[in-house]
């Protein structure tokens, strides 16, 4: 029997878990994150859930249910405030502690459970030794995107939010400072500040003469340890990239390491490499599974920033401790490229562009669709078995998939619907020589159209589909044979 393949996004098509923090507890890997709605109107509208998979089968994810509800926080009894990106750690006492903020409240809340799947119960707010809540006082550092890390029995809490000075988000700070990323050490109760805060990565206005120039801190604090070195993962001021900083200590002396991944497939330091996917904010972290390290991150769907889905990629840790930047792929957690045969859903695309390329989704602009292709569903949030597909392909739109291991591919077919006749040009390189062309006729329902017989295609390749026509095309799936 053929082993089940893993894809990006790795969760079911109707699940929207951004800001993923992956952890191995026992023989399973768990992912914790925010919880968006399909076609949402704001970030993080749903309650927290978690998913898990066996460490030896990263294609078989299991829904563990709701682990914590918005209205469990005493500051949110009506449930009207959304819970932003959480993080979790197993404390010195063996209990599991979940850290989060309610929207832009600037206060870090903590929930507690005996198991990694909950149910979690409210535990308290991070506080100073005198009992005052951290983030409540004028002059406090603004609390956002907490990252929790237990190093042996010492407990470190990371936080920070530093948009550009012109950003209207700074108006929400209400007298609290936005300076970059910083760290507290907590007591073993996981709640009380022992020391800090101490700045570890600067904001953009303070980064010019540091190693963080051009990659200053914005948000999304997360800490990991590899060997004897500490890796602070964060979203830079460019937002679409996850970066890392390295130190021999968990609370000081960090230097910029590099970019791990961009959810627009952009290399910021090479200005001639343009976006290959519509991008926005990014948040995630690293995990080691069976001696292989992965980066977990999210992509954007439905033409805006409020319906984000979980993705992951293999990464390489070099002998000097550096991490090579990786690209977005369709195979993600799969052990290598996908098989070059069978039917694949178009929703696993890792390249998505209009004839003018791809660009950034704006945070508060809903449905930036226009002539842009976007990934969407046929049903609303919570309904059973929605169909996810790529909508709104116009003349020159490109959808790409990386990568397949082709073995004598000689035919392919596409399942699409279109309001006018057109063609799909297929190639193995972006803007490269076409491999074949598939004629598409106007059809109101998704229908199959096949290529002529191809010369055998072999090896590890990408596939790119470009629509040429005057109408609008929706792309559901394709078949390789």
Automatic annotation (TrEMBL):
An MF annotation (GO) of this entry: hydrolase activity, hydrolyzing O-glycosyl compounds
Keywords recorded for this protein, A-Z: Carbohydrate metabolism, Glycosidase, Hydrolase, Polysaccharide degradation, Xylan degradation
Membrane spanning stretches: none
Family matches, as CDD domains: GH43_XylA-like
Organism: Halolactibacillus miurensis
Family named by the database record: Belongs to the glycosyl hydrolase 43 family.
InterPro entries in the cross-refs: Glyco_hydro_43 (IPR006710), Glyco_hydro_beta-prop_sf (IPR023296), Glycosyl_Hydrlase_43_Enz (IPR052176)
Name this polypeptide is given: Glycosyl hydrolases family 43
PANTHER family per record: ENDO-1,4-BETA-XYLANASE, PUTATIVE (AFU_ORTHOLOGUE AFUA_2G04480)-RELATED
Record-level GO BP terms: xylan catabolic process
């Amino acid at each position: 029997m053929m082993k089940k393949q893993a894809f990006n996004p790795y969760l079911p098509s109707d699940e929207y878990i951004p800001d993923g923090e992956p952890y191995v507890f026992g023989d399973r890997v768990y992912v914790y994150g925010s919880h968006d709605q399909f076609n949402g109107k704001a970030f993080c509208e749903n309650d927290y859930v978690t998913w898990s998979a066996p460490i030896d089968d990263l294609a078989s994810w299991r829904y563990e249910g709701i682990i914590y509800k918005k209205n469990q926080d005493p500051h949110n009894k009506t449930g009207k405030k959304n819970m932003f990106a959480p993080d979790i750690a197993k404390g010195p006492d063996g209990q599991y502690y979940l850290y989060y903020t309610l929207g832009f409240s600037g206060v870090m809340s903590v929930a507690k459970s005996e198991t990694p799947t909950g149910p979690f119960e409210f535990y308290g707010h991070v506080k100073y030794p005198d009992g005052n809540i951290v983030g409540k006082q004028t002059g406090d550092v603004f609390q956002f995107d907490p990252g929790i890390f237990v190093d042996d029995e010492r407990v470190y809490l990371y936080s920070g939010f530093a948009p550009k000075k012109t950003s209207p988000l700074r108006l929400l700070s209400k007298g609290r400072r936005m300076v970059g990323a910083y760290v507290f050490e907590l007591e073993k109760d996981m709640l009380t500040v022992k020391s800090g805060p101490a700045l570890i990565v600067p904001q953009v206005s303070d980064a010019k003469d540091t190693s963080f120039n051009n990659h200053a801190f914005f948000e999304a604090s997360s800490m990991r340890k590899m060997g004897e070195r500490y890796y602070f993962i964060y979203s830079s001021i460019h937002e679409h990239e996850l970066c890392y900083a390295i130190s021999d200590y968990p609370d000081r002396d960090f230097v910029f390491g590099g970019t791990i991944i961009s959810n627009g497939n952009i290399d910021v330091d090479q200005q001639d490499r343009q976006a290959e996917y519509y991008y926005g904010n990014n948040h995630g972290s690293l995990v080691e599974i069976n001696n292989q390290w992965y980066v977990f991150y999210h992509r954007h769907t439905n033409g805006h920033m409020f319906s984000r889905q979980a993705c992951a990629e293999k990464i390489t840790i070099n002998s000097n401790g550096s991490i090579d930047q990786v690209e977005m792929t369709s195979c993600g957690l799969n052990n290598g490229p996908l098989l070059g045969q069978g039917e694949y859903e178009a929703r696993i695309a890792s390249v998505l562009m209009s004839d003018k390329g791809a660009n950034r989704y704006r945070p508060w602009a809903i449905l930036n669709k226009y002539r842009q292709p976007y990934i969407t569903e046929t049903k609303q949030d919570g309904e059973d078995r929605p169909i996810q597909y790529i909508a709104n392909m116009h003349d020159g739109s490109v959808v790409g998939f990386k990568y397949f291991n082709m073995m004598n591919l000689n035919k392919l077919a596409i399942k699409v619907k279109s309001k006018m006749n057109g063609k799909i040009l297929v190639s193995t390189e972006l803007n490269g020589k076409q491999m074949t062309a598939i004629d598409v006729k106007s059809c109101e329902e998704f229908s199959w159209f096949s290529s002529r017989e191809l010369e055998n295609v072999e090896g590890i390749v990408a596939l790119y589909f470009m629509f040429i026509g005057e109408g609008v095309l929706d792309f559901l799936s394709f078949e390789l044979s």
